[in-house]
Amino acid sequence: MKKYTFILMTVIFTGFLFHCGTGDKINVTEENISAPGSGTGTAIKGVQEDLNCDKRDNDGATQYIRAARFGKRDQMAKWLALGCDVNAVDNYGWTALTWASSKGFVDASKDIITAGGKIDVPDRNSATPLMYAAGNGHKDIVQLLLAKGANKSLRSKAGYRAADYATNDDIKALVQ
């Protein structure tokens, strides 16, 4: 129980709002932890379940991947602090960096790389974050990935390189 008391106190001070698998939310406050008969057991159970970095949704995404998918940098930082794997992959072979790069979240992409995110992890179609960034017109992310050593000569299973996916001439020139 002491282990979770520390976690719950951390939650209070960071204002963490947990999402349960059922879609319910548990907002942990001093009142629902310390007030007798206030559902403390439910709050603790929810915290125990939701602090699991290995918990995955129906697409196989971890909590960290889900945060990156929506560019939620504050949530990403909290999950990393809890020890979540920055290079975990979902059922499609997508990492947090693949999601952030494909959606144009520059700062989230930088955070992932700084935390040790691998640059050229291919998904199940052998497409890389660079290919998705180029294909979605995210020039800033293409430049970031190249500066961090992304391999522009890799090919997807379909035989395409990042240059083949590029949406405009500026990006195509960068990845040629």
Question: Can you put this structure into words, describing what you see?
Answer:
This protein is mainly α. The protein is built from eleven helices and two strands, in the order αββαααααααααα. Helices cover 51% and strands 3% of the residues. Strand 1 and strand 2 form a beta hairpin. Helix 6 packs antiparallel against helix 7 and helix 8 packs antiparallel against helix 9. It starts with a helix and ends with a helix.
Look up the CATH topology of the largest domain: Serine Threonine Protein Phosphatase 5, Tetratricopeptide repeat
Write out the CATH superfamily name of the largest domain: Ankyrin repeat-containing domain
How many beta-strand elements?
Answer: 2
Which class of secondary structure composition applies to the elements?
A: mainly alpha
Q: Notable features of this structure?
A:
176 residues, 2 domains, two-stranded antiparallel sheet, mainly alpha, Serine Threonine Protein Phosphatase 5, Tetratricopeptide repeat
Please provide a brief summary of the model.
The protein is mainly alpha-helical. The chain is built from eleven helices and two strands, in the order αββαααααααααα.
